[in-house]
């Protein structure tokens, strides 16, 4: 696969990338001024710091780090979903931040390959941090050549949240565990004016749920092949698409779901307008206490003949990691202090207690203030785990898959058209 992180590739990736003047102002400095030549200034580029879950804890952690390390100044640059784009442009000018806190997905999959970030495997061992990381997280962050792309940090459980109170109001006595039961529940909910399953059919949340439903008839190895190659023609994949289409056309998903986003989904569930949502940890943590009291977490209902014997969930260990840039290598002593501080058990525990974050690191702390997050952590033999496709989808196919997702969630779209839309997303790669 050709890497997207070349000057030609970046400038073709989207309007505004050709000139630094098109970049947003970030925390009082432009992106191309991000790298500070002062050897005593550590520059951290992160998605935390505004409204992202865990931001207050992160800002408090920065304050503690500064107090404990008075000789190190820390400049924090904050971006949202455009972080990868902004970082890549800064890297082309050799003015990137020293440490980057972002997830392993889409463009970032190629960063180590093209030298935008460095392999940190030696640092993990030299700094004595290997035992702090969950083995599954190390596996996820290690590429096919054995390079550790970043220090794993945030993880997530991704179950399905069911509002029992709304189900009971509609006369549904139990959380559905089969497709037939889900369809029957959806009909009852609609009769009471309640949306059944809400999801962002026009963004990444819908993409993930679609992938989850498609995997109903796939083993993990088969799913890995599908999402690596874009081959949606196998029998199990076609059965999964058929199952998705049957659920969709039976009215299981909220009205106009193809236009909804993750924010729409969260609002509908949290305001009791919808009874069910596919919710990762950060969404579970945001559920108001009054709704959480009546919510049960479980898996996605199965169809007859499924490859799984229990309803399915997803788990991931790639939500946010600490990446080291080439500029960061020049300040490795400061970077080491920062990474060690972020890996400290007390820092990790605060993210769990205060923000309800799942971590890719070992900890005995429980999200007691976030009961649904804690409940998802306890899901064991009651559910089966399917593959989160992020590590296997080619970066250039990620955004086209969002478009294909919206098409797929549009009622009346045939299974053949869904399959064609998914395969077309890969042809652009």
How would you describe what is shown here?
- By secondary structure, the protein is an alpha/beta fold.
- The chain contains 19 helices and 13 strands.
- The chain has helices at 7-13, 55-68, 83-92, 121-126, 135-141, 164-169, 179-191, 204-214, 220-229, 235-249, 262-270, 281-285, 289-292, 326-329, 332-343, 345-355, 371-378, 395-409, 415-427, and strands at 25-26, 29-30, 41-46, 73-78, 99-102, 151-158, 160-163, 195-198, 274-278, 295-298, 312-324, 358-359, 384-386.
- Helix 2 packs antiparallel against helix 16 (345-355) and helix 8 (204-214) crosses helix 18 (395-409).
- The longest helix is centred in the middle third of the chain and has 15 residues, at 235-249.
- It is globular, with a radius of gyration of 22 Å.
Question: How would you describe the shape?
Answer: globular
Question: Can you say what the CATH homologous superfamily of the largest domain is?
Answer: Periplasmic binding protein-like II
Cα gyration radius (Å): 22 Å
Proportion of helical residues: 40-55%
Q: Report the β-strand fraction as a percent range.
A: 5-15%
Number of helices: 19
Task: Report mean pLDDT, rounded to a whole number.
Answer: 90
Q: How many domains?
A: 2
């Amino acid at each position: 696969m050709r890497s997207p992180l070349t000057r030609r590739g970046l400038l073709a990736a989207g309007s505004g990338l050709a000139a630094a003047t098109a970049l947003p102002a970030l925390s009082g400095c432009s992106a191309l001024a991000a790298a500070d030549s002062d050897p005593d200034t550590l520059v951290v580029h992160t998605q935390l710091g505004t409204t992202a879950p865990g931001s207050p804890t992160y800002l408090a952690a920065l304050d503690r780090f500064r107090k404990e390390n008075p000789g190190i100044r820390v400049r924090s640059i904050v971006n949202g979903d455009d972080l990868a784009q902004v970082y890549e442009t800064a890297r082309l000018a050799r003015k990137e931040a020293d440490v980057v806190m972002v997830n392993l997905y889409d463009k970032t999959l190629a960063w180590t390959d093209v030298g935008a970030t460095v392999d940190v495997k030696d640092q993990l061992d030299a700094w004595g941090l290997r035992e702090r990381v969950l083995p599954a997280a190390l596996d996820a962050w290690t590429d096919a050549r054995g390079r550790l792309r970043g220090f794993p940090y945030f993880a997530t459980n991704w179950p399905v949240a069911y509002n029992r109170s709304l189900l009971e109001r509609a006369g549904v006595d139990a959380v559905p565990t089969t497709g037939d039961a889900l369809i029957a529940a959806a009909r009852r909910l609609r009769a009471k004016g309640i949306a059944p399953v809400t999801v962002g059919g026009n963004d990444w949340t819908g993409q993930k749920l679609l992938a989850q439903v498609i995997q109903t008839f796939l083993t993990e190895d088969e799913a890995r092949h599908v999402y690596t190659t874009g081959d949606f023609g196998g029998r199990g994949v076609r059965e999964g698409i058929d199952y998705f289409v049957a659920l969709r056309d039976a009215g299981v998903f909220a009205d106009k779901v193809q236009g909804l986003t993750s924010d729409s989904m969260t609002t509908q569930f949290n305001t009791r307008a919808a009874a069910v949502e596919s919710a990762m940890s950060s969404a579970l943590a945001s559920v108001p206490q009054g709704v959480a009291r009546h919510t049960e977490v479980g898996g996605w209902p199965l169809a007859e003949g499924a490859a799984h014997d229990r309803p399915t969930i997803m788990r991931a260990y790639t939500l946010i990691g600490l990446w080291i840039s080439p500029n960061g290598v020049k300040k490795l002593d400061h970077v080491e202090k920062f990474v060690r501080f972020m890996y400290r058990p007390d820092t990790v525990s605060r993210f769990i207690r205060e923000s309800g974050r799942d971590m890719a690191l070992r900890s005995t702390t429980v999200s007691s203030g976030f009961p649904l997050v804690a409940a998802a952590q306890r899901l064991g033999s009651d559910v089966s785990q399917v593959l989160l496709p992020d590590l296997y989808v080619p970066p250039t196919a990620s955004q086209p898959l969002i478009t294909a997702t919206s098409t797929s969630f549009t009622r009346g779209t045939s299974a053949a058209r869904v399959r064609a839309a998914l395969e077309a997303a890969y042809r652009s790669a």
